[in-house]
Amino acid sequence: MRAVHAPPRRRRAGALPPLDEGAGAARLVHQRPAPPPDPLGNRLGGGAAAADGPDGRARQHRLHRPRLLPRGLGGAGRARGRAGRAALGLPLPLDRLGRGRRVSGTVVIGGGPAGAAAAILLARAGARVTVVEREAAAREKVCGEFLGPDAAALMASLGLPLPSLGAVPVSRGALAAGSRDAAWALPFAAWSLPRAVMDEALLDAAARAGATVLRGRGAAGAAREGEGWSVRLAGGARLAARSVVLATGKHELRGHARSATRGQIGLKLPLRLAGPMEGTVLLLPFAGGYAGLQPRGGEGAGREANLCAALRAVGSEARDPAALLGRVASGSALAARLLRDAEPLLARPLAVGGVPYGFRHRDGAGAPCGLYRAGDQFAVVPSLAGDGVAMALAGGMAAARAILEGVPSAAFHRALDAELGRPMRWAGAIARLLEAAPGALTLAAGVFPAGARLAAARTRLPSRPRPVAGGREGGAGPVRILARR
Ligand SMILES: Cc1cc2nc3c(=O)[nH]c(=O)nc-3n(C[C@H](O)[C@H](O)[C@H](O)COP(=O)(O)OP(=O)(O)OC[C@H]3O[C@@H](n4cnc5c(N)ncnc54)[C@H](O)[C@@H]3O)c2cc1C
To answer: Any residues with CB less than 8 A from the CB of 80 and at least 6 apart, and which?
Structure first.
């Protein structure tokens, strides 16, 4: 059995660990250091990105490169790179490191919001953590990119306030069906930010906090071994760990697939519109699905918008931007008007299949101990809520706290389920109403905008994260992980 890291250095009780874990920490690969800041402290852009096709394979698209972190951040990563303890972004031979050391630390599988947030907290607390992210570089993901106040607060608590990453504000909601439309002021501040930018900033923060980030290495499996876990990487290397955070999002890990049976298709198509969208997120139902349209943050701020759709079945929409635009436009006069002169920014939409909206993980009898699920691997909220990222961040952070406090994974899962229940129930109910009676819902939102505001608020996480209560691996009983406001 191989362990990856050197044993933890002893710290004075209560003392905060140094952010980079100092000179003694063994590492496989450090996340590439933050690139040098430009003279204005801004970030760069323009590069390759990808998302999955309906067949689950990655597609490459030229879109936004992740923006770099603001001036002054990332120095620790550069220093480590110069010191030669890790090649920049190049994996070191796994089998030459940490051989024979004791099992400790956590392997986080998946470097999306859930996995990266877990890694940041674990590393900042001085724990050993390795993130395994199968993509070698940042990429676009099928996501509406709407971020509510809960996501914004969680990102800020991680030291990544959304405006500093180039997010643009969204202050109004709107719904259109047939010839009707309605708009209302959102009851909270919300934002739009490309996923490639956000995910890269999170992974960068994890590396700067001292996590080992393996890029371009997928996990092929994870199994109990002795007291802990053995995570098998594509190519055959193994990582040994005390606990595992399963954060592979929409993708199943062999042997740990979600129990969800049905799934929808998610499509994403960035667009250039005839004019700028005025800080509004639009919900556009059509037969067999719905789409969200909102201004695009990051480099696309201005006339660019992000169209993201959830459909029960697709034909040419998954390949042909015009077909997707036509399908969305068929649902309302407003959509037809807005999309008539829209210019797709991709040759074909990004797509992901089998999205199990409404899925909530429940541990069955004999569920493995020490495997903490977070993000879409724990629960999948209907996209119209625009709260999946907040739930992923909160779940990842809560998983980290649970691991640090020794809370058993089963107790963690029960507590997280309780916290995510409200947005899941509200989003599910709204999704059903939208499908059954889009016109009536639009009429109701127009006559009673306070109801639309209430519904928007109820699809948010009801609580802010706080440190977990104590507990031991193998113990029992529900543990409150997130405090009510
Ligand atoms: C159509 C649609 C629209 C949406 N719109 C919004 C929205 O507007 N706002 C919002 O908040 N949420 C939205 N969501 C939901 C949101 O995208 C997800 O809830 C969120 O991305 C979940 O984060 P995650 O970290 O769990 O997973 P992901 O973001 O999917 O990240 C998982 C990571 O794991 C990696 N990975 C996968 N398998 C492996 C492996 N075997 N080994 C190593 N790495 C692996 C992947 O490369 C990926 O980087 C939308 C979803 C859909 C489908």
So the answer is: 20, 27, 30, 33, 86
- φ/ψ of 394, rounded to 5, equals -65, -40
Rounded distance, CA 177 to CA 461, Å?
Answer: 27
The domains of the chain, with CATH numbers, are: 47-140+196-260+358-426+463-484 (3.50.50.60)
pTM: 0.79
Question: Is there a contact between 287 and 317 (Cβ–Cβ < 8 Å)?
Answer: no
Report long-range pairs for 43-49 (Cβ below 8 Å, ≥24 apart). 43/67, 43/68, 43/69, 43/70, 43/165, 43/166, 43/197, 44/68, 45/298, 45/299, 46/299, 47/137, 47/138, 48/137, 48/139, 49/138, 49/139, 49/140, 49/196
138 Cα: distance to centroid of ligand 1 (angstroms): 13
Q: Are 312 and 337 in contact (CB under 8 A)?
A: no
Q: Distance (Å, rounded) from C-alpha 144 to C-alpha 385? A: 10
User: Can you tell me which atom of ligand 1 is nearest the CA of 146?
Assistant: 8
Between the CA of 110 and the centroid of ligand 1 the distance, in Å, is 9
User: Using CA atoms, how far apart are residues 126 and 45, in angstroms rounded to an integer?
Assistant: 33
| Amino acid type, 158 | L
**Ligand 1 mean position, distance from CA 195 (Å):** 9
**What are the per-10-residue average pLDDT scores of the chain (485 residues)?**
36 30 31 32 27 38 31 31 27 32 79 98 96 92 94 96 95 95 94 95 97 95 93 93 96 89 90 88 96 88 90 94 97 95 95 93 86 96 92 96 95 92 92 93 92 91 50 29 31
Protein residue closest via CA to atom 30 of ligand 1: 249
Instruction: Tell me the best of 139, 251, 350 to mutate to test the pocket of ligand 1, counting ligand atoms within 8 Å of each CB and taking the most.
Output: 251
327 in Cβ contact with 349 (< 8 Å) = no
